[in-house]
User: Fold this.
Amino acid sequence: MKKHLSSAVALAVSVAATLTLSAGPASAGDPVDQTERWLAKQLDGGLVHNDQFDFDDYGLSIDVGLALQELGQTRTAKTVRKAIAKNVDSYTTGADFGSSDIYANATAKAAVFAQATGADPASFGGVDLVKRLSKRVAGSAPVNGRIQDKGASDFANVIGQAYAVQALTEAGAKKAGKATTFLLSQQCKAGYFRLNFTEDKTAADQTCDGGKRKTTSAPDTDTTALAVLALLEDPTPTKPVRAAVSRALAWLTKTQGTNGSFGGGPSTETPNANSTGLAASALGAAGACDKANRAAKWLSRLTVSGVSGENGAIAYDKAAKATAKDGISVEERDQFIRSTAQAAPALVYVIIDGCD
Assistant:
């Protein structure tokens, strides 16, 4: 569990407990409680199964597991952990496709999940994820510190870099510093982090500022929030890390809508639950709970209610919520699970208002 966010969750639980004592048994209308329950119901044997395309979605399962862990549902989160550990090679490598490919983003995310749920990432499902991840960190210029896939194609990005920094720092790995330095170079002067690396690995300039704002270095709320959350996990942050977090938080504050919402990157610019939830968690983890509170209140209005079996799900936006009035279809369920997993931890800030 994220150390900064967990303190906020603990405070929320404390406040909720006080309210329960004065108002009787916990109400079925409790938004956090209902959302936790709905998320847990989306798991089958610890995994999210995509019924539309008939496959187990390991990455989304981890998102759900992380959300439940942050909300204090550790038993269910450990069920997800057990299932991911059993399938760790299927998630982090091309083993199921008969290839020797290794995916940096997935490896980093799995390592973070293992750490968050109290497992040893150096022995997770029989795999040393720290070693596997460390080998995916480039060791020479101009991409020194950048994570990269092993294989013909490379799909690693800055979100994976943030997870890698968090996992390697927590593990005390030798390459944590280089990975952190490269992550910081993906922050533009304006304060935000971009989503994608420079495509040409031989280019001398691999920085965010070295790209074009409208294309390769466009602002991305989700990436910025995840980078902040990862950097806040560093128990002994350097001056550059502290400065990067400060600039990122200033950018998030500046881009928050008057109604508390956030848009995402170039393809998700309109206000949505995923971006708003991640931004709220980052702001709250940094102590800006008044801003997180505004975001959480906006999120709470996207929570499904009055729909049998679906109460507590968080819609991507108002239009998506409208489609759930008669239930969530197979085709829509993936989007609802993703939105809910990324937004759920921020709902605690509906209760918490101001902790700067």
The first strand starts at residue 43 and ends at 44. The chain is about 50% helix and 5% strand. The radius of gyration is 19 Å. Residues 3-23 form the longest helix (21 residues).
